[in-house]
């Protein structure tokens, strides 16, 4: 078996090898929970790759997927992520008819990585960055789906721009406040990621990424996601926390449809965070993913993609009725 596998890898090349490893990796239970159709994560190809210039002068890497005429969604990744975090949405037949936009945060992925703390510590810059992406992609009224740190990005956007130009919000295991009673108890990985010691920083990054999943990805996928995570510098890790501020107050004024997704086994963000968001937006609906960790969209993509598709359709119908 081992000889046949290695021969197959040599014949297929690097891209084929990744697909082969994805096909044979993991047990039956993991396959059932994390199965995805389409090419492996390394084979993602956007409809359009484009650059966005932020008001503070940074160049942001952004991508468009799906049907340019479809209902609009911006998928906003979390700390140490990139557009690759959403691989199981970008490859999903259930979402193929949507017009999806992704981007890499400042200091992440292929976007600019300034070393000055002010580019990360000032929350308004993150909200302005999201607004710049929406404008550059010519989106008229998108749904914003923010994972983890993406919740703070959306909150900062709402603080400046309000919800008048968006159709809905999907908070996915999202962070809106940096309070100890709302976050996981073990902060060691985050502390290590901010270390100036390279080995400590890299080990903290790896441990943080592991804790994002209750059911772990196959190793080939994990290594690609880890590669993206290691592109985030310790300077960002040390500077980012003030961006939270009091942006949670902006959620009190949200009137568009809101969905709150929470993994029941999230070790990074407590379920109390979802309850906090719901208290601020009482009309929001909560969807609990039993057995999922911090990344339910990755661990249970079939359910997540169907749910997102229905939510976007409902938001779009509401927007059409309001315009009519």
What does this protein look like?
This protein has 324 residues and is α/β, with parallel strands linked by helices. Strands 1-2-4-3-5-6-7-8 form an 8-stranded mixed sheet, sandwiched between helices. It has helices at residues 2-24, 28-34, 87-90, 118-121, 123-136, 149-161, 188-193, 198-211, 219-229, 234-239, 271-280, 296-299, 301-323, and strands at residues 48-53, 59-66, 72-76, 99-103, 143-147, 168-172, 258-263, 285-289. It contains 13 helices and 8 strands. Helices cover 43% and strands 14% of the residues. Helix 5 (123-136) packs across helix 6 (149-161). The longest helix is centred in the first third of the chain and has 23 residues, at 2-24. The protein starts with a helix and ends with a helix. The protein folds into 2 domains: 1-35, no CATH class; 43-323, Alpha/Beta hydrolase fold, catalytic domain (Rossmann fold, 3-Layer(aba) Sandwich), CATH 3.40.50.1820.
In short, what is this structure?
This protein has 324 residues and is an alpha/beta fold. Helix content is 43%, strand content 14%.
| Widest sheet: strand ordering | 1-2-4-3-5-6-7-8
Count the helices. How many? 13
Query: How many distinct domains?
Result: 2
Please outline the major beta sheet.
Answer: 8 strands, mixed
> How many whole angstroms does the radius of gyration measure?
19 Å
What is the CATH T-level topology of the largest domain?
Rossmann fold
Question: Briefly, what CATH class of the largest domain?
Answer: Alpha Beta
Extract low-pLDDT stretches.
1-39
Coarse morphology: globular
Binned strand content: 5-15%
Q: Which structural class do you get from the secondary structure elements?
A: alpha/beta
Q: Roughly what percent helix?
A: 40-55%
Instruction: Identify the CATH homologous superfamily of the largest domain.
Output: Alpha/Beta hydrolase fold, catalytic domain
The beta-strand count equals 8
Distance between the amino and carboxyl termini: 63 Å
Order of helices and strands: HHEEEHEHHEHEHHHHEHEHH
- CATH architecture annotation of the largest domain: 3-Layer(aba) Sandwich
The mean pLDDT is 89
